[in-house]
């Protein structure tokens, strides 16, 4: 934009602080997009139009306040952009972490159900082995009784009804 663009209209006469604020608000359409040279040109032009020292001070103050306002807007916009970018990064990281937690929970659930299934299988196997052991103990006792009856001895290891000599 040229130095005399419509956005440069900072006033041609001294302005009270209330009017200066209203003019700054009207001019805030694009002052943050001005270049440094455009700000310098606006300052020089407005001061050169002054009709005295007090008028020049008021005009310089007006331009500098508009410049300060433009810098604040630019800084706020830059900070907002940085925060928006950071928020996007954090949102992506949060999504990644949520997926990781879901995967870990799935793995733990799978391992838990797998170990529960293995535990049930082993318990049933133990029950089968206990039943088989009981059956074998009964068979052993039955065979011992049959052997005893067949040999006619009082007990296994007893010769002629007496325990064997230990010595």
TrEMBL record:
Residue span of region Disordered: 1-34
Highest taxon, organism lineage: Eukaryota
Name the UniProt record assigns to this protein: Uncharacterized protein
Native source organism of the sequence: Symbiochloris irregularis
Taxonomic lineage from the root: Eukaryota, Viridiplantae, Chlorophyta, core chlorophytes, Trebouxiophyceae
